Amino acid sequence: MESDKIRLQFLGATGYVTGSRTLIETNQFRVYVDAGLYQGPKYIEEKNYKTLESDPKTINAIFLTHAHIDHSGLIPLLVKKGFTGKIFCTPSTYDLLEILLLDAGRLQDEEFRFLSKKKIVEYRLNEALYNEDDARNSLQYFETVPFDTKFTFKGITASFHWNGHILGAACVKLEINQKSFLFSGDIGPKNTVLHKSRNKPPGADYIIMESTYGDRKHDDDDFYKKMIEAVMLIVRKKGILLIPAFAVGRTQLILYVLYRLLQDDKIPHLPIFIDSPMATKATRVYLKYPEEIAAIVIKDKFFEFINSKNIHLIEDVIGSKRLNFFNGPAIIISASGMCSGGRIVHHIFNRIWDRRNTMLFVGYQAEGTLGRKLVRGSARIKLFNRELPVRASIKSIDAFSAHADQTGLIEWLGDSCRNQTPENVFIIHGEEESRHELKHVIKFIDDEKIILPRTEEVFYI
């Protein structure tokens, strides 16, 4: 490679909303921006078992945009296989990763135990990708950096900028050999409910941006109104309102909306169960960072409500199983948000066939997930080797998404371009239809400058 060239290679999240990882290298260093696991249906998760294209010992650093496992979950495996470099992130991202990575380690261990002998041979495995101890060991390599603070590593000047997606989420700017790169990470909506609104991003020569909602716009309907309708429906039917939600960000947002409705006497007081140990721990992290929370949320004394007797935090498995026998009306919030695993799957198994119940989806449902099937109106689903009729009401609220929609993505890009016109924009972290549509609707950048990279495709800059 020529001494002054920068090599950019896309190793994940190309045509998928998961598995984010990009390699940047020169003759002086090799670094990743994000290092995520693939999540979702089996045919996507199987990508995690592919042989790594690079020896982790050769990677000098990882710049991490935020804590979600599809951006961070590969880190324990990299450390297990020899990575000893630095991992840079914001302080609140690190606090969340102390929870999320250990949980990911437990899940990887569990997944290995359920793999068939055929798959174990096919993947050439003799143990799980990593376990909880591996995840804990990886935490020693992290170094936290506050937002909007420039720092240097091996000639790279880097900075994190608040992105409004979840606690700690940032876009990352890297300046290398008089060239600048802006990685969007996951972009939050412009007007959020729980978090502070995202800051305007800096400009850069090359922009690498997500496209989760690149082909659609969020529902403009009043999400408070839709939540009222969903709650009142199960009140009338004496059923259960089952809400699949990610433990970080989404669960706390839903709780705040319910809190506001209770405060305004728009819904009756019902038992609210948070059946997610991770969500409970993540909520405690939120309490540490009021500066990243919307001012109105702090003023409303919302976090006092979370710690009150109104909320039932279920941490043990026995408590979770008891919910199967709980009669409504009540609300159960449980992970995972796309119904691809976790306790929510067991609640669906026990509730989806009952007309008294309602399932409320409050975020993106990736292709191939159980959540996507239910949102699309499947009449029957298969769980635990049993076919179940879908009789519960299925509703969704797009406005709860922690991702910017098409309009928000274009606004984010436009804000960056007002600071500096980029040489190229690389669109990643979106399904193919979403990436192509976003490229089509961006009118202020020449079409040939917008690139949809393929997996492992390399660009020299």
Per-chain topology:
Blueprint: E1 7-10, E2 21-25, E3 30-35, H1 42-45, E4 61-63, H2 69-72, H3 75-80, E5 86-89, H4 91-114, H5 117-123, H6 132-138, E6 142-144, E7 151-153, E8 156-162, E9 170-176, E10 179-183, E11 206-209, H7 223-237, E12 240-244, H8 250-263, E13 272-275, H9 277-286, H10 295-299, H11 302-306, E14 311-314, H12 317-322, E15 330-334, H13 343-351, E16 358-361, H14 370-375, E17 380-383, E18 386-389, E19 393-396, H15 406-419, E20 424-427, H16 432-441, E21 450-451, E22 458-460
Parallel strand pairs: 3-4, 4-5, 5-6, 10-11, 11-20, 12-15, 12-16, 13-14, 13-15, 16-19, 20-21
Antiparallel strand pairs: 1-2, 1-22, 2-3, 7-8, 8-9, 9-10, 17-18
Task: Please tell me about this protein's structure.
It is built from 16 helices and 22 strands. The model has no long low-confidence stretch (mean pLDDT 92). The longest helix is centred in the N-terminal third of the chain and has 24 residues, at 91-114. Helices cover 32% and strands 20% of the residues. The chain folds into 2 domains: 7-216 and 402-460, 4-Layer Sandwich (Metallo-beta-lactamase, Chain A), CATH 3.60.15.10; 223-400, Rossmann fold (3-Layer(aba) Sandwich). Helix 4 packs antiparallel against helix 6 (132-138). It is α/β, with parallel strands linked by helices. A hairpin with a 2-residue loop joins strand 9 (170-176) and strand 10. It has helices at residues 42-45, 69-72, 75-80, 91-114, 117-123, 132-138, 223-237, 250-263, 277-286, 295-299, 302-306, 317-322, 343-351, 370-375, 406-419, 432-441, and strands at 7-10, 21-25, 30-35, 61-63, 86-89, 142-144, 151-153, 156-162, 170-176, 179-183, 206-209, 240-244, 272-275, 311-314, 330-334, 358-361, 380-383, 386-389, 393-396, 424-427, 450-451, 458-460.
